[in-house]
Design brief:
Strand content of chain A: 15-25%
Strand order of the largest sheet of chain A: 2-1-3-4-5
Largest sheet of chain B: 5 strands, mixed
Strand order of the largest sheet of chain B: 6-8-9-11-10
Shape of chain B: rod-shaped
CATH superfamily of the largest domain in chain A: Response regulator
CATH superfamily of the largest domain in chain B: PAS domain
Largest sheet of chain A: 5 strands, parallel
Number of helices of chain B: 10
Number of domains of chain A: 2
Number of helices of chain A: 8
Radius of gyration of chain B: 53 Å
Order of helices and strands of chain B: HHHEEEEHHHEHHEEHEEHEE
Number of strands of chain B: 11
Number of strands of chain A: 12
Oligomer: heterodimer
Chain lengths: ~230, ~475
């Protein structure tokens, strides 16, 4: 089943960039450049989810959100440049489902979108990530190698999920750190090494593992197949 | 230990002043009363002397000291008929004792011949001249003795005087207490009047110092306090504005940085995971974005200089043509966009004295602003005119009217008439604020006029 996302963003460059990313993730993306257009398209196609920038010409994102909320519960993920607006957004007043503060990572945007969709229609999705005989269930926070459940910490789980979502792609330590701990920990990249090392031990302990985490010298880590 | 409060000090001072002024008034009064009384007594003594002198002298001259004592004791003179001389021999002993007058007669050697009290007879008389009045007794132009009148303080009029002084002292004390209480009441009232506003002010200052900048005062009472309250409010308001400005700047800056950063981040992530090809074209996009970000940072620097009035101008005198040459790229860009661009410089204007780079920056900012807002059949016109000690530049475009209510804000940083904060043409909303600051650094000003026909930005620079 196709997931249709209405992307409302007035900055063309940003819009194009986000469209490319969301399509890459397998979503069908319908763009809108301002609030009025967004409302029209929303009424016409009834998308599964809205990604809504707040600063919009003609009709602001606030207004769009209000109008939509008067009619139905289409999930809305708000993009905002102002962290101070967040409380109002998520409270009863406007009822956005989630928000992202610019600048954000499109990868994380996709993750949040998937999370919202999981919540809004829990039965439909198979959200497990599988690579070789490694199987990750984000809902239960469980990782299996073959049939064997790995005893991972939350941090190790997050790192493994990030790496396994894009096998073969190299992630820098800072990238991993940001995804796992947030952006407050710049300068502590080396702590990632410890977690990776623990992860490796746990994966290797499952003798039948077909995956491994490779160190890319001077850059970071990646998930690969084999021993 | 806390020092005594202002109100306490005022009260104490007032009480002290009240008591001192009562004393200052009362003490001379007491002294003067005493003086007046002694004057009075002195005068009375003199009158007595004048009455007695001829009688005693005559008697003494005729009869010698014999019977003189009887004469004095009989006191033939009536106090009520002074100056009538002899022949008034009505016994008025009561009056004598009442008035406490004592008469003495001495011979030339100072031996007492007669004493109305009969005490000092035959003794050498020694008097304090202050206590007595005396008159010589004459016979045939020769002094034969001395007549003394003594008014002792302890009796008669003197006791009246003492009585008076006692009462005066009493009422002075009462007055002093009364005045002190008045001073206490007034002092408390005045102290409250002074210390209350000061207390309010002190609390308000304390609050402001702790960062509660919306603190305002409503001081009533004396003019000085109202003025003080007014000035305090002005100060607090300025502080609040500065603080708001600072916060808004931080918020604005982060806002302006967020969108390009999101784009950069998305593109780079795309290249990393292969969804965006790392082609030369895509890399140029990223570079442009970085250049724009760098420009924003530079503009923020300029703005900081302008807002701190710290722009250092590099003045030179250059021909107008040099300025116009440097505007050539703008003319080309206008041609590209099909804008009809004209420049009108006053004929006899040859030289300009200014910071050429800054002046150019002002013009570029105004011209690119005009380019963003030109209307259909776009026209942009730059004119330069001399006005007394100033050069007046104007940049006119035939674009949309700036609504009246937006006019006061157009020179504020990050302000855009269109609230969507769209960065379509790369305008960061800093250009006008910087241009205005540069014009002001040239001792000029900048303003705008807008109507249906055209929107014109004016600025002046001193020459």
């Amino acid at each position: 089943m196709e997931t249709v996302i209405l992307l409302v963003e007035d900055e063309k460059k940003l819009r194009d960039m986000l469209i490319a990313h969301l399509q890459q993730e397998g979503f069908v993306v319908v763009p809108a450049a301002d609030g009025m257009e967004a409302l029209h398209i929303w009424q016409e196609i009834k998308p599964d989810l809205l990604v809504l920038d707040l600063m919009l010409p003609r009709l602001s994102g606030w207004e769009v959100l209000k109008i939509i909320r008067q009619k139905d519960n289409t999930p809305v993920l708000v993009l905002t440049a102002r962290a101070e607006e967040v409380d109002k957004l998520l409270g009863l007043e406007l009822g956005a489902d989630d928000y992202m503060t610019k600048p954000f990572s499109p990868r994380e945007l996709s993750a949040r979108i998937k999370a919202i969709l999981r919540r809004s229609r829990p039965t439909v999705q198979n959200t497990q990530t599988v690579f070789r005989n490694l199987r990750i269930d984000p809902e239960r926070m469980e990782v299996y190698v073959g049939d064997m459940l790995l005893p991972l910490t939350v941090t190790e789980f997050k790192i493994l999920l990030l790496l396994t979502d894009s096998p073969g792609q190299v992630f820098s330590r800072l990238q991993i750190l940001e995804r796992v701990f947030g952006d407050m920990y710049e300068g502590y990249e080396r702590t990632i090494d410890t977690h990776i090392s623990n992860l490796r031990h746990k994966i290797e302990a499952a003798a039948i593992s077909q995956v491994s985490i490779k160190t890319v010298y001077g850059v970071g880590y990646k998930m690969t197949a084999g021993e | 230990m806390a020092k005594a409060g202002l109100a306490k000090k005022i009260t104490t001072t007032l009480i002290t002043v009240a008591i001192i002024s009562v004393l200052i008034t009362a003490i001379p009064m007491l002294l003067m009363t005493r003086q007046q009384f002694s004057n009075y007594i002195g005068k009375y003594d003199q009158a007595m002397l004048q009455q007695w002198q001829p009688i005693v002298a005559e008697y003494y001259a005729q009869n010698g000291s014999n019977g003189l004592q009887d004469l004095l004791e009989s006191n033939p003179m009536g106090g009520s008929s002074m100056g009538n001389g002899r022949g008034m021999r009505r016994g008025e002993a009561g009056m004598r004792s009442k008035q406490g007058q004592r008469l003495l007669v001495t011979d030339m050697k100072g031996i007492v011949l007669a004493d109305s009290k009969g005490v000092l007879l035959g003794q050498q008389a020694e008097f304090d001249p202050a206590d007595v009045s005396s008159a010589p007794l004459l016979a045939e132009y020769q002094q034969i003795g001395t007549l003394y009148v003594i008014s002792p303080l302890g009796s008669g009029l003197a006791s009246l005087e003492n009585d008076f002084i006692t009462r005066l002292t009493g009422s002075t004390v009462v007055l002093a207490i009364f005045m002190a209480m008045m001073a206490l009441i007034l002092g408390l009232l005045l102290g409250k009047r002074v210390s209350e506003p000061l207390g309010e002010l002190s609390i308000a200052i304390h609050n402001v110092a702790r960062g509660k900048l919306d603190q305002r005062l409503d001081l009533h009472g004396d003019q000085e306090f109202e003025q003080l309250g007014h000035d305090f409010n002005l100060m607090a308001q300025n502080l609040e504005h500065a603080e708001q400005n600072r916060r808004r700047l931080t918020a604005d800056v982060s806002h302006e940085l967020r969108t390009p950063l999101t784009f950069l981040r998305g593109q780079l992530e795309g290249m990393q995971n292969g969804s965006v090809p790392a082609s030369a074209e895509n890399i140029f996009y990223l570079q442009d974005e970085v250049i724009r970000l760098s420009r924003l940072v530079k503009e923020l620097d300029d703005l900081a200089l302008v807002e701190n009035h710290a722009v250092k101008l590099n003045f030179s005198t250059f021909p107008v043509t040099e300025l116009l040459d440097r505007l050539a790229p703008v003319s080309l860009a206008m041609q590209d966009k099909g804008i009809s661009f004209s420049i009108a410089v006053e004929k006899d204007l040859q030289q300009i004295t200014a910071d050429l780079d800054r002046l150019l920056q002002i013009l570029l900012n105004l011209l690119s602003n005009a380019m963003q807002h030109v209307g259909e059949e776009s026209i942009i016109k730059l004119s330069v005119q001399r006005q007394q000690d100033f050069l007046r530049f104007s940049v006119m475009n035939n674009g949309a009217v700036i609504p009246e209510e937006n006019m006061p804000y157009i020179f504020e940083r990050f302000y855009r008439v269109d609230d969507s904060r769209n960065r379509r043409e790369g305008g960061m909303g800093l250009g006008l604020a910087i241009a205005k600051g540069y014009a002001e650094a040239h001792h000029g000003k900048m303003w705008a006029e807008s109507n249906v026909q055209a929107t014109t930005f004016f600025f002046t620079i001193a020459q």
